[in-house]
Each structure stands twice: as structure tokens, then as C-alpha cells.
Design goal:
Blueprint lengths: L9 H31 L2 H7 L2 H24 L13 H22 L4 E2 L2 H7 L5 H6 L1 E4 L11 H6 L12 E4 L2 E4 L5 H17 L1 H15 L6 H14 L8 H10 L4
Length: 260
């Protein structure tokens, strides 16, 4: 364990905070996986049919993490946060405009340098997405260059909310253009294409509104219903010997059931 003797040791503090952010991303990913379990299975069924050894070990890990972070939280001096104040209708409308404008602007920015999906990608995705969508979608691999962080994130933080870490995401869907922060992967591509379908079927403004309202309710991008659905369909796609299914049908069902 490293003990900081010099509070001015800037490099050490920067490294510590980088480690904290990395741990946070891992925890958010785990939270998303657990959330999917919660919406798919009851606690009774998990306890009755789940592997007892795995469940007990998972519970022990979760308990230990809770104790660790609770001990830290008890020592943190936190100033009163404006996040406890519900945003006004005007603030929500502003946030929706921010999100929709960002998605449109980044789409226009990347489109001239983005390329079509490869024949292999279209072949792999054709059992799940309409051919017209696969023909229309464009993609670009940034190889670590990272997508641009929205300017309005500063104002979001000032309101007491922590916006999603877009630079840590595998991919970001800008309407019909997908930017990969690293190299393309099937997991990231499928997830991104689900969002492209959602935007197509909902329309940009409605998609942005549902994303904002979901984020205000859950406060974590992994648990926004639009994201939860994309993650769950991606996991379904990644299952060994997964049968083909229509993403459009699944999205339409969620729209009709008002699940977004």
C-alpha cells in the first residue's frame, strides 16, 4: 500500500485518480450486468436455480466493496449538491437540445471521412439488421484518438450530474455514423447498430429526450433504458450458437410497451 507523505506529489495524485476512475468504470460495467439480471430474473428464481457457489461469492464481493466504499464515503467532506434539486422543464429541454445537436454535429463531422461497413461486417449482421440500414451506416476507427467530449458536459457537472465517459466507450453512434474509439469489434458494432435502429425508429429528438430523462432518473448511462436494451441485445447476439432475431422487432416492442 502506497502512503502519500507529500500532498504536493502531483504525479502520484494524478495516478491515484486515474486508478479510481478505472475502478469506477469497472464497477459501472458490473452494475449494468447486475441490472440485466434484475430485469430478467426474480430473486426467487436466482436463489432457487442459480449456482449457489457463484451467487455466494458474488454476494461476498459486493458486500466487501460496499464496506470499502462506505468507509471512504464516511470520510469525504461533500458540499451540498444541486443534484438533489429536480431539473426544471426548461433545463430538461435544454439538455435534450444539447444531446440532439451534439449527435447531429458529430455525425456531420465524421461523415466525410467515414467508410461503409465491410462485406464481412454486413454478412455477420444481416441476420439481425435490415439490409438498408447496413448499407447506409458509415463507420470510422479512431485507434485511440477518442471522440470529442461535448462542451456542455461542463454545465452538466455544474448542475451536480456526472455525464458519461464518452472517451472510454468502445463506440459512439452519431445517428448513422459509428465512431470506434479503438478498433472495430463485433460487440461494439452490434451495440452501436442497436442505437442506430433506436434513433431511426424514434427519431433524433425523441431519442435524445428519452436518453436525457432516463439519465436524470438513473444518473448512470449504463442504466438508461436505451442503453440497457442495447446491452441486453448485444449479450443475446454474443451467446454461443445464437439464433437470428430482428433488432427492429425488439426495439418496436419496447417502444410500444413504453419501456424506454
Amino acid at each position: 500500500m502506497y502512503v502519500y507523505q507529500d500532498p504536493e506529489d502531483r504525479n502520484a495524485v494524478l495516478q491515484m485518480n486515474a486508478d479510481i476512475e478505472h475502478a469506477q468504470m469497472e464497477l459501472l460495467s458490473a452494475r449494468c450486468a447486475v441490472h440485466q439480471l434484475r430485469i430478467q430474473y426474480s430473486t426467487d428464481n436466482l436463489a432457487r436455480f442459480g449456482c449457489p457457489d457463484v451467487l455466494q461469492k458474488s454476494a461476498q464481493v459486493a458486500s466487501a466493496l460496499h464496506q470499502f466504499y462506505a468507509a471512504i464515503e464516511a470520510k469525504i467532506q461533500v458540499a451540498p449538491s444541486s443534484a438533489n434539486i429536480a431539473p426544471s422543464a426548461e433545463q430538461i429541454a435544454q439538455a435534450v437540445d444539447w444531446v440532439s445537436t451534439y449527435l447531429q454535429q458529430e455525425r456531420d463531422f465524421y461523415l466525410p471521412v467515414a467508410g461503409s461497413l465491410s462485406n464481412l461486417c454486413r454478412f455477420r449482421m444481416r441476420q439481425y439488421f435490415a439490409p438498408s440500414l447496413l448499407e447506409r451506416v458509415r463507420m470510422i476507427e479512431l485507434h485511440g484518438a477518442r471522440v470529442r467530449v461535448p462542451d456542455f458536459f461542463t454545465e452538466v457537472r455544474a448542475l451536480g450530474f456526472e455525464p458519461p465517459e464518452v472517451t472510454h466507450m468502445d463506440s459512439v453512434t452519431f445517428l448513422d455514423v459509428v465512431a470506434f474509439n479503438q478498433a472495430l469489434s463485433e460487440r461494439a458494432l452490434f451495440h452501436a447498430l442497436v442505437h442506430a435502429v433506436q434513433i431511426d425508429m424514434l427519431g433524433l429528438e425523441r431519442y435524445a429526450e428519452l436518453w436525457v430523462r432516463g439519465f436524470l432518473k438513473t444518473r448512470t448511462h449504463f442504466t438508461v433504458p436505451l442503453e440497457v436494451h442495447a446491452f441486453s441485445l448485444t449479450e443475446k447476439f454474443l451467446q454461443p450458437a445464437a439464433e437470428s432475431f430482428s433488432v427492429e422487432d425488439h426495439v418496436l416492442r419496447w417502444i410500444l410497451d413504453d419501456r424506454y
